[in-house]
């Protein structure tokens, strides 16, 4: 199966109230662990690739790994640019074979965000590529993006509804109190904002910063209308802890497969548990 746009599964997610996981790809082990977990759970999913990860892996390797995963699994998989910062980077990804892009214009004024997002949507849709937009500012640290908690601002429901109507995005990331990276305490998620927005637009909202959010809150967010949830940090932590365990207990290990293997297995478990929590198992 070739890579597909998010419209292959997001409408069903919205209708049946489940969420599709965006699992970020950072190297070969991530792509293998994520697709293995999804195959075991028979789930659609999204490979998220940040601009930092894109630089690290190279665009050709990124697309090749995602295409191999789609071909091997037969699952509906979208390859999605995460937090794209410009029209140019979005187009570069689409030309290389991405089936979905996020344009994050949240640091611009509302008007400028609408104008730039519309441009991306117009071109992407002409090529069958789906687009995620962002409104409000999501706090925390992710790759090159760092937003101080004080600068994080919640999305206003009426503005989010208008943003959808003006841009025609396929899903909308709105700041509702989650943050990128690890939480120091419990997040304060504004479920009423999610609900108010999703009942007025035909597409789901996206929850960024899904790592470390208590399961009950995730379930509540999905019931309120979150149809796409992003997970990266938990996989990074699982991989690194597993590697650290192997290396700290054995000084003579030098074969990378001896420590990357356990790291990969740890990520498979994380992704499987997220897929079941999101309810996207058996929805492929
Ligand atoms: Zn994000």
Automatic annotation (TrEMBL):
PROSITE patterns per UniProt: ALDOLASE_CLASS_II_2 (PS00806)
Gene Ontology molecular function: fructose-bisphosphate aldolase activity
Cofactor(s) named in the record: Zn(2+)
Family annotation (Pfam families): F_bP_aldolase
Protein EC: 4.1.2.13
CDD domains, alphabetized: TBP_aldolase_IIB
Matching Gene3D superfamilies: Aldolase class I
Signal peptide: none
Keywords, in A-Z order: Lyase, Metal-binding, Zinc
EC supergroup of this enzyme: lyase
NCBIfam families associated with the record: cbbA, fruc_bis_ald
Name used for this protein in its record: Class II fructose-1,6-bisphosphate aldolase
């Amino acid at each position: 199966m070739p890579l597909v746009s998010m419209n292959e599964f997001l409408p069903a997610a919205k209708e049946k109230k489940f969420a599709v996981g965006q699992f970020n790809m950072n190297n070969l082990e991530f792509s293998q662990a994520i697709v293995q977990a999804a195959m075991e759970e028979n789930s659609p999913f999204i490979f998220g690739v940040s601009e930092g990860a894109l630089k690290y892996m190279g665009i050709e390797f990124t697309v090749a790994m995602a295409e191999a995963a789609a071909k091997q699994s037969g699952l509906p998989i979208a390859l999605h640019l995460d937090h794209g910062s410009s029209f140019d980077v979005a187009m570069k990804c689409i030309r290389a074979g991405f089936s979905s892009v996020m344009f994050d214009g949240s640091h611009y004024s509302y008007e400028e965000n609408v104008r730039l997002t519309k441009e991306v949507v117009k071109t992407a849709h002409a090529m069958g590529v789906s687009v995620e937009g962002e409104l409000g500012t999501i706090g925390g640290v992710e790759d090159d993006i760092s937003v101080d908690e004080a600068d994080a601002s919640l999305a206003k429901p009426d503005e989010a509804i208008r943003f959808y109507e003006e841009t025609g995005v396929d899903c909308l990331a709105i700041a509702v109190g989650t943050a990128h990276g690890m939480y120091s305490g419990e997040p304060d998620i504004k479920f009423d904002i999610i609900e108010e927005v999703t009942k007025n637009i035909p597409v789901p909202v996206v929850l960024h910063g899904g790592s470390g959010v208590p399961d009950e809150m995730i379930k509540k967010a999905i019931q309120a209308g979150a149809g796409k949830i992003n997970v990266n940090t938990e996989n990074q932590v699982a991989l690194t802890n597993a590697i650290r365990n192997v290396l700290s207990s054995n000084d003579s290990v030098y074969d990378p497969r001896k420590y990357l293997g356990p790291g990969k297995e740890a990520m498979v478990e994380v992704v499987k548990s997220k897929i079941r929590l999101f309810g996207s198992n058996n929805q492929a």
